[in-house]
Amino acid sequence: MNAMTGGVLEIAEELPGAEPFGREAPIVAPAVRARRRRRLGLGEPLPFGPLLGPGLLLLYWCVFSYTGLLDPRILPSPWATLATARDLTADGRLPANLAVSAIRAAEGLAFGVVAGLAVALISGLSRLGGYVFDSLVQMKRAIPTLALIPLVILWLGIGEPMKITVIALSVFIPIYLQTHTALRGTELKYLELAETLNLSRWRFLRDVVLPGALPGFMLGLRFAVMGAWLALVVVEQLNATSGIGYMIDLARTYAQTDVIVVGLVVYALLGLGSDAAVRFAEARLIGWRRTLAQ
Question: Which residue has the higher pLDDT, 286 or 121?
Fold first, then answer.
């Protein structure tokens, strides 16, 4: 036995809980392994964990409103907001504006996802495409989408095409960045394995690269959904005649604080619900990827 091997054996014997070479490691029960993982991880998920934060916020809102610490002229109480939402639903204003906003956000999200995914595939899977497109996208990334609104208005007017275009631009960047990064982040060991197995380029892309980039795409989709709602808030207050943003802007004109709060709560619920939907799809599509969140 040479000096290097003897040194490795001595270090291994000195490690806490380590067994010397040649001995069988003790069998650890599954319950013990699970307990160790819980001790080092984040613990078991709570049944209604995602609702904990909004629930606490609602509790504080109720307490401060009931005790009078929160002036109703500044922020109406939850029960007053709920009554206003019920009245807006009864006369049809809230459902009609909500439907218009949902259609706008869905159209902008669809166009942005398709464009971002297409450019990311071209740029991520082709060196020439990366040289052509990546620098252009980085230039666009340095320009806030909201700063492009005056130019988009000059090009497309103040109607629906402008609103959908601004939403799509807000969606495009996160989809491209996360998908492109995931495509270029494929480890070289998978390429070497594919060459060993004599896989064709198409099979390598289909079976290795694209499934490996799916987590990045789903992360980009979560950012894209939030970006769609943020852009929607802005464009619906630019000469709009319908939508939740229009309802909020009209309420501002008449100093209807309760209606404004209803619109903001609707935006928050839409964002929370859409993010939960993307996370649900992510858990189903990439359930094989184990992380601390699972």
Answer: 121
